[in-house]
TrEMBL record:
Signal peptide: none
Cited InterPro entries: A-crystallin/Hsp20_dom, HSP20-like_chaperone, Small_HSP
Originating organism: Micromonospora jinlongensis
PROSITE patterns in the cross-refs: SHSP
UniProt xrefs under Gene3D superfamilies: 2.60.40.790
UniProt similarity note: Belongs to the small heat shock protein (HSP20) family.
Protein name, entry field: HSP20 family protein
Start and end residues of each SHSP domain: 21-132
């Protein structure tokens, strides 16, 4: 049996993963950074109703789920449909150095921002070094 190769099949598959499809929208874009004693994650969710956003943490896995719906109802006529609609989901694996019990979330101007403090046990601390009279050093933390 002769198998034909389609050079564009792989490109189409990668484009669907990156840009999404009508049935499965692309993932939400994210910026993540640390500023001092806090870790921040900012998700782009323009046009999403804040009530449709669900944010959960389970075993250091942060899951953000949001839904963008098309206008519907009597008299609504869809003229163009280029914006991705549907349910968006993104997961982040958080390190043990973050205190997920004190996670804070805010939604403003289409951006969901999560603020997670760095755990006390992960912050740098000063180590005191003492010297014994016999020349050996003892370290107290």
């Amino acid at each position: 049996m002769l198998m034909r190769t389609d050079p564009f099949r792989e490109i189409d598959r990668l484009a669907e993963q990156f840009f999404g499809t009508a049935a499965r929208p692309a993932m939400m874009h994210l910026d993540a950074y640390r500023d001092g004693d806090h870790f921040y994650a900012a998700f782009d969710l323009p046009g999403v109703d804040p009530d449709s956003i669900d944010c959960t943490v389970e075993r250091n896995v942060l899951t953000v789920r949001a839904e963008r719906r098309r206008p519907s109802g009597d008299g609504v006529e869809l003229v163009a449909a280029e914006r991705p609609m549907g349910t968006f989901t993104r997961q982040l694996f958080l390190g043990d150095t973050l205190d997920t019990d004190k996670l804070e979330a805010g939604y403003e101007h289409g951006v969901l921002t999560l603020r997670i403090p760095v755990a006390e046990r992960a912050k740098p601390r000063r180590v005191t070094i003492t010297a014994n009279g016999d020349g050996r050093r003892q370290i107290n933390a």
